[in-house]
Every structure is written in structure tokens, then in C-alpha cells.
Amino acid sequence: MNTETVIKGRSLWSDARRRFFQNKAAVAGVIALTCIVLISFIGPYFAVWSFEEIDWDTMGSAATLGKPSFASGHFFGTDDLGRDLYSRVLQGTRVSLKVGIIGAGIAVIVGTVYGTVAGYVGGSTDQIMMRIVDVLMSIPFMFVLILLLVIFGRSETMIFIGIGMFAWLDMSRIVRGQTLTLKNKEFVEAARATGVSTPTIIRRHIVPNLLGIVAIYATLLVPAMILTESFISFLGLGVQEPKTSWGALISEGAGTIRYDTEWQLLFPLAFFVITLFSFFFIGDGLRDALDPKDR
Amino acid sequence: MLNYTFRRVLVAIPTLLILIVITFLLMHSAPGGPFTSERPLPPQVLANIEAKYGLNDPLYVQLWEYLKGIVLHFDFGPSFVKKSQSVNDIIAQGFPITLTYGGLSFIFATLIGGTLGVVAAIRQNTFIDYFAVGISIGAQVLPNFVMAPLLVWLFTLTLGWLPGGGWNGGAWPNLIMPVIALATSYMASISRITRSSMLEVLNSNYIRTARAKGLPERTVILRHALKPSLVPLISYLGVAFVGMITGSVIIDVYFSTGGLGQAFVNSALSRDYSVMMGVTILLGSLTIFFALLADLLYAWVDPKIRY
User: Fold this and answer.
1) CA B184 to chain centre
2) Whole-structure pTM value
3) Cβ–Cβ of B146/A272 closer than 8 Å?
4) Which segment of A231-245, A249-263, B33-47 scores lowest on mean pLDDT?
5) Considering CB atoms only, which of B12, B254, B283 is closest to A140?
6) Among partner residues B153, B242, B250, which is closest to A231 by beta-carbon distance?
């Protein structure tokens, strides 16, 4: 009995894997994303300058001396203050990816727990829990997030708390809906009839069946988190100097674009765009692979 | 319908109150009062000023007064940094600007996105379709803060056609870039939603019937397919509106258009708490109102939807 279920579970996932790898855009997304992650971690070993070091020779004349070149060791050029853009972009990539993945992680865990409990318990508990979600959802969270950052100071922890507070709402709705349909399936009924306790049913029977849909939305949440963080950093309210992130780098590049230093915008932008595309394609690929009836 | 409207409004009102209370409490938990400065005021002066603004009252009294001011007189109180202006003055200055380019972007995104989606669905798998789908995929990764500098680079620095910022009383050269930057990503989503719902409608039975009885394609699409295919769009328009209000912060900062977003960020940077509160609450209530409007409209158009 036990071995049989294991084999069955595997074949479902390997089926999905096969479908996923047939999707060219999704595979390209995985490759591009792997490259970006590798570059952001291995790249610093090839850097000549650190991300906070100022190259005094190029400072003040970024448009002429700060151009991207191998000779000066500034592969992506320098920023307005004479700092090496290559190192800064890699550093910003690590920060943005971290915010995206941790933010999405918090949202997935909180949202899944909240949604399964609301959906499975049902009744007035469900009503109250979902009304709370409704209320929180209609609060314009970007403004509240900015308020939080201004009042309690700009720090990475505050960004995580602020983003995490609101990001789980969509997730909990999706998970609740899925739980409601699972709840009335025969295998859950059978478990209940044989006297399995509610927490065990949720853990053993509901959550594993939610994994597909959770995985899809988690990959789509990461770019959403990155977008939120970039939005805040673009306004100068995100991570603090000398640390940086894509939003901050794009903002700096956008600010100095009048001085013929377009590489300051284009390099961070390229990383940003490629990563977001990758996540969207992977998310689409996962959806097609795990939820084929949805097409 | 009445029942649903009632229940939906019942959610909206506490939401609004919660928003006001959260902003109020956040502001009051901020370290330092509004009059703490580098050169400390003499204690008597400080006491007098605080008494004038009612800052010595217990917190719930202050909250009550603040709520009463907003609800009864639409009064958000004085600005603590710009002494000569009230929050209402600042809002009155910025709001029409935000509304102008925000409204234009909304119309632009809906019209262009909707048209693109419908045309793409009618001409499925042709060049037009691929073009529309390509644009909507590309624009997913072009949020307003990416579009704005790219547009300036192209139209101001390279071509020299448009001014790179400023409001200039809302002259159209100053409007073009803010509107496009704000609208692009929503236009893409709108065209994607319209395309897929139009495709679904075009494959349904009653369209086949309409075609079978020999109606011209034009009538089939305009009379029978168009209206139902726009229904899923309604709930998205609420989301799009909220996104545009939020995005106006970026537009104001980058293009110096002087709208509410600029007031918000300036007050955030100078810690002018009452202005931040006022702007957050005003934009927040707009958000809540439009979400409510979209939900009610959706329920009215499609009576099957009740949740």
C-alpha cells in the first residue's frame, strides 16, 4: 500500500517534469536564471573593485573616464561617484533576489497555513478569517509600507516585515479555494471516516495536494516581490547605502541619464528584465506542467 | 443585489476606519514629536505649541478629533513642516494634477489595451495577434519606473521631441510621457485579459449559433461577442486604478509633475507626518472606493457572481 502510493506520486511529478522541460520558454527561463544567480555569486571573485570602493581617478568624469572597459577593471563602467558598477550590480542582484525569495517564502508559508485552516475548518471561522483578508486587501499597502519604512527606519528587516505583511493575502485566497474543493474529495472523507485527526489530515492529505498550485504562485510571487522592492528603492526608501538593489541602481542610472552615461541605467536594467522574464516564463511553464486542465 | 451591495459596503467602511487608525497610530509611534528639532525650543514655547495642536490630549481624544475633522469637515489638519499651509492646501494643489494624468492613463490603457485584445482575438494566430501578445509579454517587465527613464532617454535626450519633466499647466507635450509610462504595464494586462476572454466567447455555442444563422461577422462580434467578453475586465479595472494611483508616486518623482505623489515623498523625506497621513488616507479611500465600485459593477453585470 505504502510503496504503491510513493510510486504513484513520483509518476505524477515526473509527468509534470517532462511537460515542463518540453516548454522551451520555461527551460530558457531556468537557464537564464541559473546564469544570473551564478554570476551574482561567482562574479565578485573576478571583480577588480569592491562595490563600495571609490575610484578617485574617474570620479566626477564618469561620462568620459567611467565607460565600461576591461583595461580599467570597470567591466560595466562606474557610477556617478566613481564606484565600480560591475560589483554594484552583482551586489544589488543578490539583495533583490534575496528580498524576492525570502518575501515570497514568507508569503507562501503564512498564506498556505492561513488558507488551509480557513478552508478546512470552514463555517464562521472561515467567514471571519476571510473577511480579515478582504479588509487587509483593500488597504493600499504601498503607502503603508512607505510609512513603515519612514517611521521605523529603512532596514532590510523592515522591508521583509512590510512586504510579508501583505504579500500572503492572495496566496491565502488561492489556497483556501483549493482546500475547499479538496475537502469534499473521497480520500479526505475516507481519512476522516477512519478517525484521522484534523491536523494530520491537513498535513498529510491537504497540503501535499496543494503543492502544485502553491509552486506556481510562488514562482509568480518572487517577481512581484522584486517589483515591490524595486519600486521602494527607486524612491530612495529601500536598502541603505553603500548596499544597493536593482531599484536603487535603476534609479541612479535614470537620474544620471542626462549626462551621457546610459550604461548606468542599462546594465542593472538588463539584469532586472532578464530575471523577471525568467520568473514569468518559469511560472507559466509550471502552470502548464502541473495544471494541464487549466489550458 | 441590494443585499450584496449592503454587505460589500459593510466591508468597505471598517476598512476605511482601519486604514485611518493604522496610519494615525503609526504616525504617533514615530520617535520624536513634530516639533522636535535640532535646536530645542524653550519648554514653555513647546508646551504652548503642543497645547495649540492638541498634542497633550490623550491619544484616543486626538484620534477622535482627527476622525471628526476628516469625516465632518474633510479637514486633514495643518502641515507641521510647511507652517503656512494646511494639508488640505497641499492636497488641493497636487490632486488635480494626479487626477489629470492618472485619468488619461486609465482611459489610454483601457482603450488601447481593450482594442488590442479584441483585435488579437478576432485575428487569432496572425501577425496582429503575435504582435499584441508580444507587446503584452514584454510590457510585463516594463513597470512605470523602468518606462519613465527609457522614454526620457528616447524622446528627450535622443530625439529631443518632448520636455523631460515639469507640468507646465498640463500642456500636452508634458503629459505624453507620464501617461505612457504609467499606462504601459496595465495596457498589457488589459489586452491579455480581453484577448483570452474574447477567445473564450468566440468559441462558445451561442456565437456558433449566431454564425450559423448567417449573421455577418461584424454583427456577431459587435452585437453578441463584445459585451460578454468585456465582463472579466471589470474586476481588473479596479486593480489597474489602484496600481496607477500607486504608480503616480514614481511619475511625480521622476517627471517632477507636482502631483500628490510628490507631496507624499517630500513629506516622507522631511518627516511631515500630517501630510503623509492626509495623502495616505485620501489615496487609500480612493482605492477602497474604486475596489467597491468595481465589485458592485461586476455583480450588477454578472448576477451569477456572489461571494
Assistant:
1) 14
2) 0.83
3) yes
4) B33-47
5) B283
6) B250
Type of residue numbered A222: V
Cβ pair B246:A143 closer than 8 A = yes
pLDDT band at B149 (very low <50, low <70, confident <90, very high): confident
Q: How far is B38 from chain A (nearest CA, A)?
A: 18
For residue A223, cis peptide bond before it (omega within 30 degrees of 0): no
Chain B positions touching A150 (Cβ under 8 A) are 268, 271, 276
Residue numbers in B near A139 (CB within 8 A): 15, 18-19, 22, 284, 287-288
Residue range B106-133: average pLDDT? 88
Is A31 near chain B, with CB under 8 Å? no
Q: Exposed/middle/buried for B158, CB within 10 Å: 0-12, 13-18, 19+?
A: exposed
Q: How confident is the model at residue A293 (pLDDT cuts 50, 70, 90)?
A: low
Whether the CB-CB separation of B231 and B302 falls below 8 Å is answered with yes
Report the complex ipTM.
0.80
- What would the pLDDT profile of A186-195 be if each residue is shown by its tens digit? 888 899 899 8
In angstroms, the CA B254 to CA B99 distance is 17
Residue A292 has pLDDT above 70, yes or no: no
- Residue B20, burial from CB neighbour count under 10 angstroms (0-12, 13-18, 19+): buried
**Interface subset of A 139-158, CB within 8 angstroms of B:** 139-140, 142-144, 146-148, 150-151
Inter-chain touch B250–A265, beta carbons under 8 Å? no
Distance from CA of A195 to the nearest CA of B (A): 32
- Return the half-sphere exposure (C-beta side, CA atoms, 13 A cut-off) of residue A43: 24
Q: How far is B235 from chain A (nearest CA, A)?
A: 13
B146–A269 C-beta distance less than 8 A:
yes
Containing B106, the helix (H) or strand (E) segment is helix B87-122
For each of the domains in chain A, give its residue range(s) and CATH number, in order of start.
Answer: 29-40+75-294 (1.10.3720.10)
